[in-house]
Write a structure and sequence with these properties.
It is a single chain. The chain is α/β, with parallel strands linked by helices. It has one domain: VSR Endonuclease (Endonuclease, Chain A). The protein contains four helices and six strands. It has a six-stranded mixed sheet, with helices on both faces. Strand 3, helix 3 and strand 4 form a beta-alpha-beta unit. Helix 2 crosses helix 4. The radius of gyration is 16 Å and the shape is globular.
């Protein structure tokens, strides 16, 4: 018997119901940034990785990544106990796609920020206002990359 607490059919239904866009962390950040007077476009298909938020005025994008689906090694991420090879392959490919999209955007002159789910959810979450303030400050500066995680901010670039 597997370590999973629910049947494979129930797990499959649960996983297929998880949204890829308009997630709660994304909606919270969008609302806070909009409140600060920042205007953006959503999920632009013509840009690599279809960024969650696109700020053409600043030539900047923000990805709001789920820690599980994008393989972020934090307190919210745990490798599944079943079908381990499948999940390692799936999450690994997502991480590769993320890196390629980020590199392509940077090469094209875009600035790229990643806000991880753990920054907005879980025991190490930051206040939403703090996350929005950090994003707004980054948009106003010239740094090419920003990464916000649950308990600390790491700026790269």
């Amino acid at each position: 018997m597997s370590a999973d607490r629910v049947s494979p059919d129930v797990r499959s239904r649960m996983m297929s119901g998880i949204k890829g866009k308009n997630t709660r962390p994304e909606l919270l950040l969008r609302s806070a940034l909009h409140f600060r007077g920042l205007r953006f476009r959503l999920h632009q298909k013509h840009l690599p990785g279809k960024p969650d938020l696109v700020f053409p005025r600043f030539k900047a994008v923000i990805f709001v990544n789920g820690c599980f689906w994008h393989g972020h090694e934090c307190s919210l991420f745990r490798w599944p106990g079943t079908r381990q090879e499948f999940w390692r392959d799936k999450i690994g490919k997502t991480a590769e796609r993320d890196a390629k999209s980020r590199a392509t955007l940077l090469e094209a002159g875009w600035r790229v920020a990643t806000v991880w789910e753990c920054a907005m959810k879980g025991p190490l979450r930051l206040p939403v206002g703090d996350v929005a303030d950090r994003c707004a400050a980054w948009l106003a500066c010239s740094e090419s990359e920003l990464e916000i995680v649950g308990d600390a901010e790491r700026s790269v670039g």
